[in-house]
Specification:
The protein is mostly helical and 37 residues long. The protein has 1 helix and no strands.
């Protein structure tokens, strides 16, 4: 996944990581109301 990070700027690299992390969080079951904390 990070094989092409050298061709990306730091902002693009962070965005990739955030999108990937967000996708993993969405797949995980979180208790209701936990997002408010």
């Amino acid at each position: 996944m990070y094989a092409d990070v050298n061709n990306c700027t730091q902002s693009e690299m962070l965005e990739r990581i955030i999108l990937e992390w967000d996708a993993q969080q969405s797949e995980s079951e979180r208790p209701p109301g936990d997002e408010d904390e």
